[in-house]
Write a structure and sequence with these properties.
This protein is an alpha+beta fold and 487 residues long. The chain has 13 helices and 18 strands. It has a six-stranded antiparallel β-sheet with strand order 8-7-6-11-10-9. The chain has a five-stranded antiparallel β-sheet with strand order 2-1-5-4-3. A five-stranded mixed β-sheet has the order 13-14-12-17-18, with helices on both faces. Helix 5 packs antiparallel against helix 6 and helix 6 runs antiparallel to helix 8. The longest helix has 49 residues. It is rod-shaped and about 165 Å long.
Length: 487
């Protein structure tokens, strides 16, 4: 009697303990029969008391879960497979009411399994909140790093552009400008190749002026060969629906999808003077990104603008230099620039020895030409004489119109005898030329010339110039159309 009472008390205590627990509990026998289920299971999973009763088989229980849509056949098969392994395992499931339940399955030594159900909704939500917070923090950190990197890149680009501008503005010649552009672009736009094309004087072709990277310098291209020149704006190959390459770019038919390049018009003072071509095909990019993005295009455009302004400045400087050093009628050098070159030549002779010669000549009977045919005809005659002079003395000689019908030629590294021979050949060229004005054949034009050399005939520039003039006057006295040298 006492043993039965004790047993009944232990069972009642066990039931009381099970009912007081926060977890839902199911005990399955070794052959899959429900031996125990507490009320917390029903409330936690929002199940009716008939959903699972003591004595129900596990197969029936699982089938009811499938019928209610709380499990799938695949899930049930997986659970059965795990139970047969008799190893502890855990799963999570979410009820229709949104309660997240952790299900822990443990095998018993006597056979069968104990299954506990714990409500982890709050901790799960907290974990999700923490995960989202950590994710947002990581995203913010990545964004901050990206922003810092981008800012550093923009500052580096700004410094590069400022340095490029400074160098370009200091260029004394167009050749210097081209060399600076080649070096700058290879460093400022790394992992690229490219060319700078400049319109020829005839404006019918563009000549290759600058090259960097793996590109070979193209001799010339036609304006219609480039989409940027035809459309009048930056052309990015592959950025639109139509992928049609420029004719000046050699792209194999099978490689069109891998090609990436920019063509940018070079516009100086409102006039298109050239085109900048930048090839990004060899550039490697991560995460399947394209080598050309909007930032890259904008930076390339700013580089093109700097080059455009520099070309405009050099051309303007060259034009002003031409205007300040050239005679506007004949295109030969003017007297002021000629004297500067003479002084420089004489100084070089003083330092290095040698000789420099001077030829002075003027057109014979020029006044009578003006009186007979008019000043326009006289100007035309002077222009032709100037053209013949520049064409004949085309090496390192310096040709000048000193005033009126008078001309002078500086011949570096030349003796008086050599200058005399050259002057004789020249007056013969003038004599043989047919001068025409408005389709009218003019009388034969001749010139008289005088030759002197430094230091052979003079000790200074003033003496050299006077000696050549006196020799020219001697030629006039001898009957014109001849050459005399200093006595």
């Amino acid at each position: 009697m006492g043993t039965e009472l004790e047993l009944r008390c232990e069972q009642e205590l066990s039931v009381e303990v099970l009912e007081s627990m926060e977890q839902g509990i199911i005990v399955w026998s070794d052959d899959g029969i429900c031996e125990l289920v507490n009320s917390r299971y029903y409330s936690m999973l929002n199940q009716g008391m008939d959903s699972l009763v003591v004595g129900m088989s596990r197969g029936t229980y699982f089938q009811r879960l499938v019928d209610r849509g709380e499990a799938t056949e695949e899930m049930v098969n997986g659970l059965e497979a795990n139970l047969l392994k008799r190893q502890p395992f855990s799963i999570e499931r979410k009820t229709a009411a949104g309660v997240v339940v952790a299900v822990d399955v443990r095998p018993m030594q006597s056979g069968g399994h104990v299954v506990t159900y714990s409500d982890i909704t709050v901790s799960k939500n907290n974990q999700d909140i923490l995960s989202r917070t950590i994710k947002r923090a990581e995203t913010a950190e990545v964004s901050a790093r990206d922003a810092l990197t981008l800012e550093q890149e923009r500052k580096a680009e700004a410094r590069g552009l400022a340095e490029l501008s400074d160098w370009l503005q200091c260029c004394k010649s167009i050749d210097e400008l081209y060399e600076i552009v080649s070096q700058a672009l290879s460093g400022m736009i790394p992992d690229t190749s490219g060319q700078l094309f400049i319109y020829s004087n005839s404006r019918d072709v563009l000549d290759g002026a600058v090259v960097w990277g793996r590109t070979e310098l193209s001799r010339s291209i036609q304006p219609q060969d480039c989409w940027s020149l035809r459309r009048g704006r930056t052309f990015q190959y592959g950025d639109g629906v139509v992928k049609f390459p420029c004719n000046h770019v050699n792209i194999d038919e099978n490689s069109r999808d891998e090609a990436h390049y920019l063509c940018l018009p070079i516009i100086a003072q409102g006039d298109t003077v050239g085109m900048l071509h930048i090839d990004f095909t060899e550039r490697e990019c991560e995460n399947n990104l394209l080598p050309i993005d909007d930032v890259t295009v904008a930076f390339a455009q700013r580089c093109a603008e700097q080059i455009s302004m520099a070309i405009a400045n050099v051309k303007l400087r060259d034009e002003l230099h031409e205007q300040s050093t050239r005679d506007p009628l004949t295109g030969l050098f003017n007297r002021r620039y000629f004297l500067e070159r003479c002084r420089s030549a004489l100084s070089q002779v003083e330092r290095e020895s040698g000789s420099v010669a001077l030829i002075s000549f003027d057109a014979d009977n020029f006044k009578s030409y003006n009186d007979q045919f008019g000043h326009d005809a006289g100007d035309s005659l002077l222009c032709i004489v100037g053209e013949l002079t520049g064409r004949f003395f085309s090496n390192n000689e310096v040709c000048c119109r000193t005033g009126g019908e008078e001309f002078s030629i500086l011949l570096p590294d030349t003796t008086a005898a050599q200058a005399l021979t050259k002057a004789e050949e020249f007056i013969h060229v003038i004599e043989q030329h047919e001068f025409r004005y408005r389709d009218q054949l003019l009388p034969t034009v001749t010139v008289s010339a005088g030759v002197a050399a430094y230091p052979e005939n003079a000790d200074s520039l003033a003496e050299l110039s006077r000696a050549a003039d006196l020799a020219m006057y001697d030629a006039k006295e001898l009957g014109k159309n001849c050459v005399c040298s200093t006595k």
